[in-house]
Amino acid sequence: MVNSDGEGSLVDQVQKLLAGDADALVDPYPVWNRLRDEAPVVRLGDAVLLSRHRDVKQLLGDNHHFYSRARTKTSARYENARQTFSPHGRAAFDTVLDHEFTQLVRLDPPDHPRVRRVVTPPFSAKALRTEMQARVDGRVREALDEVRAGGGVVDFKQVAYTLPLKVLGDLLGIPLSDLDDIHSWAFRIAENKLNADSEQKSIEAAGAYESLMAYIDRLVERHRASGQPTGLVSALLESEADGVVNGTEVRAMLALMIFAGHETTSNLLAIGMMALLEHPEQWKVLVADRAKAPAVVEELLRYVTPAHFLQYVAAQRRELDGVLIEEGDTVIGVLASANRDPDVFLDPERLDVLRPDAKLHVSLGLGPHFCLGAGLARMEAASLFSAMAEQFPGARLTDDPVVWGGRSLRTPIALPIAVGT
Fold first, then answer.
1. Which sign does the torsion angle of CA 311, 315, 320, 326 carry?
2. Parallel, antiparallel, or unpaired: how do β-strands 41-44 and 67-68 relate?
3. What values do phi and psi take at 48, rounded to 5?
4. Which residues contact 309 (CB under 8 A, 6 or more apart)?
5. 3 state SS of 405
6. pLDDT tens-digit map of 143-185
7. Residues 53, 56, 62, 66: is their CA dihedral positive or negative?
8. Residue from 253, 332, 306, 247 nearest 72 by CA
9. What does the mean pLDDT of the chain come to?
10. How many Å apart are CA 353 and CA 342, to the nearest integer?
11. Which residues 6+ apart lie within 8 Å of 323 measured at CB?
12. CATH of domain 10-418
């Protein structure tokens, strides 16, 4: 049992992290570590948190036997939150859920494998090397040209959010002039991700979804009119024409690509660069040998964990470590804790870009819900970090304090870095 009495208790600290409290997000890892050590399976209200690597791994890799993603929509956690909102807030909350639970990440079989088969080919290793590597490298060169032209100090958060957006534009045929709008909508949606306690964030996310889906409708019609025979959008439209997926699933898949292909990758780039510069000896490893960039990316995925937690719903009743998980309970897997589990990783609090077991991290999921865009995210990160090491080996963090935002997607609001000229 954990002590739940008073402000500053472990329960209080965990709840602040789940709610995205800015002060708590400054350094959440001691809280996650303490949770894993003291209460690795714990009920907090209408949710059960899992924080050990082995439990989170089972949660992520489960093929909907113990856990379900789709049923999260009707979970007690969401319903209890919904009842505290005004009629306008409840309508917004329902709008967000309606959009998010048509997306691939919230589907169970048989819908999940049917839709995933349609979108997997463009993200294969061969397709990425053929179609995207040169484009990603070109976008990285553009980004660093802008860094050099900007003078001695750059807000690297802007670099980290612009690069994935431009790559996303290349992938989906989104004009550069539309990317700021895309970012604004994706950011408001990200602020609300896994939310169950903020009416205002639900309202903002609902408005962002309405704008985003209207944009996707225009994107699809523009693509139909262009007659382009290749690309991800074409693959989706061809599958719609063949009756494999429906129009709602096409729009939902594009919404997911816009969100997941941007916000989570942006987070990896920003916090990953920050972590490297906080550990100069690790940064020097990459500067000395840029071929190590893929290994560096794996360790950063483990160490910073771009998304700190994910949630499912229990598909059946079970007991785990003496905690009864009822069918329908929300189950939250704390990826940030699992990635620092000393039962799996030696000296887990240490950033080690040559760590041999870094790939045991769970940041990209496992099993049927393994991150579809994992290859592209890795490609972008390796290209950017390698190019930074080559062009700005003396880069360092400034003395400016970093302000944190987000919730599951813990992210710096700005990240000033001195790069020299």
1. positive
2. unpaired
3. -115, 130
4. 18, 194, 332, 333, 334, 335, 336, 408
5. strand
6. 999 999 888 899 999 999 889 989 988 888 888 888 888 888 8
7. positive
8. 332
9. 88
10. 17
11. 41, 42, 43, 48
12. 1.10.630.10
Q: How confident is the model at residue 370 (pLDDT cuts 50, 70, 90)?
A: confident
pLDDT, tens digit, for every residue of 226-268? Answer: 766 556 788 788 888 888 888 899 899 888 888 776 778 999 9
User: What is the C-alpha to C-alpha distance for residues 398 and 153, in angstroms, rounded to an integer?
Assistant: 8
Instruction: Give the span between the Cα atoms of 257 and 251, in whole angstroms.
Output: 10
Lowest mean pLDDT of 133-142, 165-174, 258-267, 310-319, name the range.
258-267
Amino acid at 238: E
Q: Which residue has the tokens 């505290």?
A: 84
**Mind giving me the DSSP string for 158-198?**
HHHHHHHHHHHHHHHT--GGGHHHHHHHHHHHHHHTT--S-
C-alpha span between 385 and 236 (Å, rounded): 32
pTM over 0.85: yes
pLDDT in tens, 41-79: 999 988 899 999 999 999 998 866 788 877 877 787 788
Rg (CA), the chain: 21
C-alpha to C-alpha distance for 125 and 103, rounded to whole angstroms: 23
| Cα(366)–Cα(348) distance, integer angstroms | 20
Q: 371 with 308: CB under 8 angstroms? A: no
| Tokens 């919230």 found at | 106
pLDDT at 5: 52
Asked if 345 contacts 302 with a C-beta cutoff of 8 angstroms, the reply is: yes
Residue type, 125: A
Sign, CA torsion 17/18/20/21: negative
- Any idea which residue has 């987000």 for tokens? 406
Exposed/middle/buried for 83, CB within 10 Å: 0-12, 13-18, 19+?
Answer: exposed
With a pLDDT cut of 90, the percent of the chain lying above it is 46
Residue 3 has pLDDT above 70, yes or no: no
Joined tokens for residue 89: 């807030």
Q: Are 250 and 237 in contact (CB under 8 A)?
A: yes
Instruction: Tell me how far apart the alpha carbons of residues 100 and 63 are, in angstroms, rounded to a whole number.
Output: 20
Report how far residue 95's alpha carbon sits from residue 112's, in angstroms, rounded to the nearest whole number: 21
- Map residue 84 onto helix, strand or coil: coil
